[in-house]
Amino acid sequence: MSHPLPPPPSDPALVPPARRPGSVRRTTTMLMYWPDGYDNPLQIDGRARDLLTPRPLHADVVVLDEATVSAQVLKNRTIAGISTTPPRPGIARLIGARGGGNFRAMLPEAIPDDREAGTALHLLLDDLPGTTLIAPFGWLREANQSPGGPMLPAMSTEQMRQTMEGVCSGFRPGSSGFAIAAELRQNLAEVPALGDVTDPWSWHDVGTPPTVAMRRARRIDVWRDGAQIGIDAMFRDSCWATDGPEVAVHEYQINAAVDAVTMVLDSVVATPRVLPYPECPQAADNVGRMIGSDAAGFRTEVLARLQSVDCCTHLNDALRALADVPALAAHLTLEEP
């Protein structure tokens, strides 16, 4: 006899952890909105910063890297325009590409040195496929709350099942998520601002969002912990609607450690904080399959080890970004006691 699942988690982080002396923090945001309405191109503005917090803590922080991305995206997820800072000569090669399929395979040609270097710019561009996919949820939520009802077509439960069954834990066969998604009643949780008001360096400047928008935010903290590199990371997809607070659709916290010499993953725990369906959190217990893998290879290894109903696509996205841990940890040599 099966037992009903507990409701999905609604426990967003209230404040980022305090910056550790001798640590590096990467923060990124991808803001998605439609300046001229939904019938016009989607605008995606990405910002990122790598920050070294030295020993002693009262010493001046060091900004190691900063990057921005501005992209205009058509309804079929085709990149209509894109620019970056720092500028890259090959970035125009991404115009005409779709924000899915082989987009990420094109990045080594457009920005040949950034992936290996694990730059903040590469992570922003690597996030374009995911953000072009999730962005319409923000508009759909806005439209569903308006007096005229939804302005975008919604799938029936059966259409959801035919399209999505088996792609992730939340859409496993028999999941309640199909009906919940079709009825646009996903679990959402109101969230506070990303930064710590007591620490102006806790996050980069995220600006003021438009009335209707979505945002993907990431934070990755790394520090030396004996023979290991400690990792504390977060991942959040959130959105705004007219006259409403910011609400999270997906949020995870990841605590992990890699060997400081080999960069092989020694331990990892994923904590679901906000997820849309009761079945979603079941994927978190599978992250242990990543133990023993090289952190630098996470972008491909995560997809190989966590698939179908054993994965959560958003948890996979959070884990993939840990491929940049070796690049971030390289700066810790400046901070050895």
Can you put this structure into words, describing what you see?
By secondary structure, this protein is an alpha+beta fold. The chain has one domain (23-335). Helix content is 21%, strand content 28%. The protein has 10 helices and 9 strands. The chain has helices spanning 103-110, 114-117, 120-126, 128-134, 136-145, 157-164, 177-182, 298-305, 313-320, 325-329; strands at 23-33, 42-53, 62-73, 79-85, 189-190, 213-225, 228-240, 247-259, 265-274. Strands 1, 2, 3, 4, 5, 6, 7, 8 and 9 form a 9-stranded antiparallel β-sheet that branches. A hairpin with a 2-residue loop joins strand 6 and strand 7. It is globular. Mean pLDDT is 92; it is low at 147-151.
Short description:
With 337 residues, the chain is an alpha+beta fold. Helices cover 21% and strands 28% of the residues.
Tags for this model:
single chain, 337 residues, alpha+beta, 9-stranded antiparallel β-sheet, 10 helices, 21% helix, 28% strand, globular
Radius of gyration: 20 Å
The tally of beta strands, per DSSP, is 9
The class by helix and strand makeup works out as alpha+beta
Report, as a whole number of angstroms, the end-to-end distance. Answer: 56 Å
- Strand fraction: 25-35%
Could you describe the largest sheet, including whether it forms a barrel? Answer: 9 strands, antiparallel
Chain-averaged pLDDT = 92
Structural shape = globular
Helix content: 10-25%
H/I helix tally: 10
Order of helices and strands: EEEEHHHHHHHEEEEEHHH
What is the number of domains? 1
Oligomer: single chain
Low-confidence stretches: 147-151
